[in-house]
Amino acid sequence: MSSLREVPVDVAPVEVRGAFELDRTPMGLLPRRLPAWTRPQIPDVFMNTMVTMPSGVRLAFTTDSPVVELTVHPRTMHTVGSPVRPPVFQMTVDGVVQPDAVARGGSFVHVDRMLGPEGVTFEHGGPATLRWDDLGAGEKAVEIWFPTNASVEIQALRVAADATVGAAPVQPRRWTHYGSSISHCMDVDRPFDAWPAQVAAAAGVELTSFALAGQCQLDPFMGRVIGDHPADVISLKLGINLVNNNSMNQRTFTPAVHGLLDSIRERQPNTPVLVVSPIFCPMAEAHPGPTVPVEGGFDVVAAAPSVRPFPLTLEWIRGALEFVVMARREAGDSNLHYLDGLALFGADDEALLYDRLHPTPEGYRLLGERFLPRAFGEGAPLAG
Question: Is domain 4-166 annotated with CATH 2.60.410.10?
Answer without folding.
Answer: no
